[in-house]
Amino acid sequence: MEVPFDAQMSRTKNRPLVRCALTPFHAFNYGVTLGAFGTGILCVKLNSLVAALGFGNIILYSFFYTASKRLHVVNTWIGAVVGAIPPMMGWAACTVYGCVNIYIPILVAKNVLHYIKGNLEDGAWLLGTLLYVWQFPHFNSLSWNLRKDYGRAGQVFYLLVAPCFRNLVLPVGTR
């Protein structure tokens, strides 16, 4: 999905798919297999809430974040959610017990957010929020140095489309 764009960036041009060391077919199958097994292991060894968060994060990253990187600056907000979920998974792994009915929230999509919201403690939400907020100055300071690479690859982010705001945004992430 991103091979032609990764080939244009010095940071990503040596990835296996770009170098043709791996076919897209094999990469896709490998990713699906690891995602399925990983979600299953999270469910069996930890709990279904962690598995649901992990599976949801795979979907969010693969289909929404990746697809939006060249369309709209909202990709940064989606990416921040993707980055905030793993610490919430860690919290849920240590504190949530007895959540074993994973098929219910996954098959009935309207119940997923209620299920997650009802089973995560306030500390998990606080930790996720801290990571979410932290990612903006972190990404902005890193992306400014890579803006030419991102521009060549057609990626859209706030400081690339509105560089006039860099003096407001960059000092927060670099000092």
TrEMBL record:
Q: Where does this protein reside within or beyond the cell? A: Membrane
Tell me, what's a Pfam family for it? UbiA
Q: How does it sit in the membrane?
A: Multi-pass membrane protein
GO terms (BP aspect):
heme A biosynthetic process
What is one cellular component GO term in this UniProt entry? mitochondrion
Keywords from the named record: Heme biosynthesis, Membrane, Transferase, Transmembrane, Transmembrane helix
InterPro entries per UniProt: Protohaem_IX_farnesylTrfase, UbiA_prenyltransferase, UbiA_sf
Transmembrane regions listed in the UniProt entry = 21-42, 48-65, 77-104, 124-144
Question: Which CDD domains does the record cross-reference, listed alphabetically?
Answer: PT_UbiA_Cox10 (cd13957)
GO function term, MF aspect, one: protoheme IX farnesyltransferase activity
Xref: PANTHER family: PROTOHEME IX FARNESYLTRANSFERASE, MITOCHONDRIAL
**Record's protein name:** Heme O synthase
> What is the native source organism of this protein?
Zophobas morio
Q: What is the lineage of its organism?
A: Eukaryota, Metazoa, Ecdysozoa, Arthropoda, Hexapoda
